[in-house]
Amino acid sequence: MTTLSERRRSVAFIQKEGESWACFLVTFVAQEGEWHGYFSFRPGHGEVAEDEIRTTDIFIESSEAEIHEKARGLGKLLLAGLLDSALHTQSTNGLGGQKLRGRFRRLLKENSKEIAGDWAIDATAPPNATEIDRLRSIYSSYRLDQVSHFISLINPDDFERTVDEILAGESIDFLSKDRVQFAMMVVDHIERLLPLPDFQSWVQDFLTHPEAYRLYTHTLHREGRLP
User: Fold this and answer.
1) Over 70: is that where the pLDDT of 176 sits?
2) Which of 44, 67, 92 is the last residue of a domain?
3) Mean pLDDT, residues 95-113
């Protein structure tokens, strides 16, 4: 549980199954006056506190400096082991919804970038009204980003239950050949429920405020956090 007195320090980035995890050392003072410390891990697609997983309180010392000293002696191999342990604890505690939500958002992010490219960091000017095909690509990317943003705001367990309802009990195995088919069924269902603008309305707003859209896309794709 997060406390107001918690302090966070970035420790390392760990690669696991093709995904980068940020590792933080978190310290705080307990009621007894002793300093506690644990490690928290955030996946590359994570933007909110719920996306993080943590170890139990590993360090209990009389000062924060002692915890920092001990933490400095841990290499990436041991930190990766702690990440594996935290992931195992998460799965045995029935927190699969968090992982499912993250996989959906990563799939949407990759597809969004494939459709429109990295237009938000392109040094050239945004497309103009005559570049209809380019605008349609960015519009399609925008719609996927809106679905991804919406999914990130849903409680992981609620999202897992929603996916079950949409798929009528069918499960998604992201290692199977059917993963995209099932995933897009869910995405299409959510997209139809969102109050998204039609293409013409979006184009008018995009051409009027291109920098706002550029900042939104850059923050979501490049900085890995919610705008």
Assistant:
1) no
2) 92
3) 70
